[in-house]
Amino acid sequence: MHHRKYRFIIGFLVAPLALYVMFVVSPNIQAVIYSFTDWSGYSQTQNFVGLDNYVRLVHDADFWTALTHNAVLLLVLPVVTISLGLLFAFLLNIGGTRRGSVVRGLRASRFYSAVYFFPYLLSVAIIAVLWQQAYNPQGGLVPGALSAVGITPPRDGLLGTPSLALWACVAVAVWQAVGFYVVLFSAGMASIPRDIFEAAALDGVNRATLLFRIVVPLLWDNIQVAFVYLGIIALDFFAIVNIMTPHPESVGNSTEVIAHYLFTRAFSGDTNPQYGYASAIGVALFFLTLTLAAVMFRASRREKVEYA
Amino acid sequence: MTTFSADRSRRAFLRGMLAGGLLVVPGTTALAGCATAGGGTQEQAKGTESKENPLGIDTSAPLELVFFQGGLATEMDWVQKTYGKLYPNAKINAASTVNINSLQPRFSAGQPPDMVNDSGAQKIPLSGLIAGGQLADLSPLFDAPSLDDPDKKVRDTVLPDVFPVGTFDGKLLVFNYVLSAYGLWYSSSLFAKNGWKMPTEWSELMAFAEEMKKAGLSPMGYGGVNAPNYVTEMMITMAGKAGGQDVVKAIDNFEPNAWKQDAVKQAAAAVEELARKGGFLPGSQGMKHTEAQTQFVQGKVGCYPSGSWLENEMKKDTPAGFDMVMAPVPRLSSSDKLPYEAIHANAGEPFVVPAKAKNVRGGLEWFRHMLSTDNAKAYSEATGSLTVVKAANDKLDLKSTALKSVKDALGKAGNNTFTFWFMDVYGDLKKNAAIAAMSDLLTGRTNADGFITAAQAAADKVAADANVTKFKRS
Lengths: 308, 474
What we know:
The structure holds two protein chains of two kinds. Helix content of chain A is 69%, strand content 0%. By secondary structure, chain A is mainly alpha-helical. In chain A, helix 3 (61-93) runs antiparallel to helix 10 and helix 4 (109-121) crosses helix 7 (162-190). In chain B, helix 10 (229-243) crosses helix 11 (245-252) and helix 12 (262-276) crosses helix 21 (448-464). At the A-B interface, helix 1, helix 10, helix 12 and helix 13 of A face helix 1, helix 2, helix 4, helix 5 and helix 20 of B.
């Protein structure tokens, strides 16, 4: 009986597994193999050079610069996005005016949810182009808004000033991602039993305590998943950087990230293609991401609340 | 109510996915596209040579062409017509893409198309193709009789500019079809209205810059986000005019301390002076070149350093009566080696025939058809760019002020045109000198000395880098 069940399951798994091996596993393995060669990408042959590419990687200042920026993104992007997402979700679902012990969100919260979620529906490429226009030092929305509130916008533009360019890109990423987490956390909050809030209201708990002592602990599972997703976005961060500052060296390399540096070494029409070296960068990034995910899951393992 | 739950199944599942790399790992997805397929070199189509068919193409072999879909986008229907007329059995397959680099797997598998217009931001770096032995020698084409006149070799129908930029280590591998000239662009109507004349010397330009500022214009602009190297182009041209062609050749050939030559230092100092005195449109460093060029055609910027494609690129945004024209960049001083009329001009827009294509001869024959007078003229009419075909340029009826000014400038320059290729061939030199160091100079993060030091260091690094194939230019 069991035997037949497995045959049935395997029958369904063969096709997706074959596709998976062909289009995901094998390219990854090939990338590892290329990382040990001097392949330019345009020759039919390649020489094995052992660990040369990795030795070069360790001594490549541009790589370390890129890595530093990914590390900064890894610290900042999840924290900012999750904080904002939590705050907005809280306001939309719980933080509204209270009448007696009934918990509710702000007025028109459905409208706000839609507004927050909207950027998430657009492709990153469109968003980056949009914000590129908004940052235009001559007549762009953002410098205009800064002037309006009495802040002199930077002379060289947000994307032309090394100390600001990366943050200008981060702002775009947060703007895009936050809506998704508002919706995710809202769903999480909806599943928290109302009587917990009622009890809290009866005890006279203020909003901040409600958020930090009750909502956050109960949403911990969701927050943990958000950290992993945003961490992976922070380790990638290719699209926004490549569109908004296609030449990070024009802002003192301040927006260079590993994925873009890989792109420069392999695909950019401006540099001599070195697929072997680029593969080594890709392999390094692969292990960084893998380590991140493993660490996140291990570190955040904790007891889980089940509502009876 | 609180129970411990290891939540095993979900965890195990996620871990399984991680092990397999299903969670999209950044970077490696990019690499997923570049697997080498097996396969060797293809059989090459060959026919019998004759007077009509001097390259001996197989008259029934299909011809696959890939064009770049950019500012000069065209699949050259007129050339397809003459080729098809001569070889009615040859099926022509033309396609256009913005991403020429998507052909990479076909090159590494030894099955490339028969002709590629390798251009645009996602072009395949020529150095990669050349070093990989992927390009066919084009000399049989240039030694063949021309389509217009069987007594004349193709070589004698084109401008000599074709040869230096297409020749790598003595082999002619790249065919640059379009004749490009570089200079300072301005609106002739705006200048006429204000009674302005483009200065011919840098000191005069500095004075003129103040006058433009008084009239509410920024003297110059550039797109720092993706093209500060336009200013590098202007700077190197000024250095070339001051010190002669050998100055720029030394840079191209990585001669020791090439960036520390006096002419280069003076040109860098000139750019520093203009930047320091607020000569560039504020915010240029944070703009793309199209954004900066929009400011130019809206009359907010007086002069714009760029090449002869500028008018075509900005056609949609340029108001009627703007009458864009190009002038040579000013001389650094009256003791410059080359006259004011000297300009940076070259054959650009690279076309190649892959060495491992099925129909190499067909690709070469396609070039022979591109180079007929009528076809080259049709190209100029469609794209607003001159070609390297002399006779076609002479026959052109010039309606655009821009194209006319380019042609005039080329005529006045005569033999005093020169070119450089370090930004096109050596990516890291463009990256670290022409873009990084120039951005620092233009924004005041460094001065002329700092620029020279950084650029020389970038050149020394490329020169010492065994991963970069170096070519000697003449």
